[in-house]
Design brief:
The complex is a heterodimer of chains A (about 120) and B (about 110). With about 120 residues, chain A is mainly beta. Chain A contains no helices and eleven strands. Chain B is mainly β and about 110 residues long. The chains are: A mainly beta (about 120), B mainly beta (about 110).
């Protein structure tokens, strides 16, 4: 499976600031996904990022709050803008593998605490 | 709409006991994939298994086994002779073919006590 890394692994931020999370894959992938996991909760999809096009956001998530870049087939960034304590979560990127993209593998996650 | 239900929020077992984690799913698609992921305290999500909707064969991998039953829309996960290292949150998930995101259950927190 693809090797996925995320930076930073964790961060503590002040409210009102922004943080950019990087996701790097060791092979070229078409689709990348960004998920949020709030404390004690399940994973919720934020957006799907396809190289060369605008990210597609899920209901409840907007580009102004979570801008995403996908400059090439191995890299993506998610920015959490104008943070509040409610943004404290684990943010995970994932990529799909397989001929039909049938399996998703996840990066190690970024633990964000907003004070 | 797709939905995954993991009714067990938390399970606690003593080491060496067997434990089964339940997963019930809903989908209108005839072709779909089912998954189990493990999330240890460190937070990463570890892929355990994918099952295609057209393959109802049960699978065994070491101490892990999975029982897929389309008739009851269930995809249950059994750990035999549990160990402390099995302590984690386990997520069941569902997706359609063709680059679609996963729909996750709420997860089951398994605690294995020595």
């Amino acid at each position: 499976s693809a090797v996925i890394s995320q930076k930073p692994s964790r961060d503590i931020c002040q409210r009102g600031t922004s943080l950019t999370i990087q996701c790097q894959v060791d092979s070229q992938v078409t689709m990348m996904f960004w998920y949020r996991q709030q404390p004690g909760q399940s994973l919720t999809l934020i957006a799907t990022a396809n190289q060369g096009s605008e990210a597609t956001y899920e209901s409840g998530f907007v580009i102004d709050k979570f801008p995403i870049s996908r400059p090439n087939l191995t890299f993506s960034t998610l920015t959490v803008s104008n943070m509040s304590p409610e943004d404290s979560s684990i943010y995970l990127c994932s990529v799909e593998e397989g001929r039909l993209g049938e399996t998703q593998y996840f990066g190690p996650g970024t633990r964000l605490l907003v004070l | 709409a797709q939905k995954v239900t993991q009714a067990q929020t938390e399970i606690s077992v003593v080491e060496k006991e067997d434990v089964t984690l339940d997963c019930v799913y809903e989908t209108r698609d005839t072709t779909y994939y089912l998954f189990w992921y493990k999330q240890p305290p460190s937070g990463e999500l570890v892929f355990l298994i994918r099952r295609n909707s057209f393959d109802e064969q049960n699978e065994i991998s070491g101490r892990y086994s999975w029982n897929f039953q389309k008739s009851t829309s269930s995809f249950n996960f059994t750990i035999t002779a549990s160990q402390v290292v099995d302590s984690a949150v386990y997520f069941c998930a569902l997706s359609e073919p063709g680059s679609t995101p996963l729909v996750f259950g709420k997860g089951t927190r398994l605690s294995v006590i020595a």
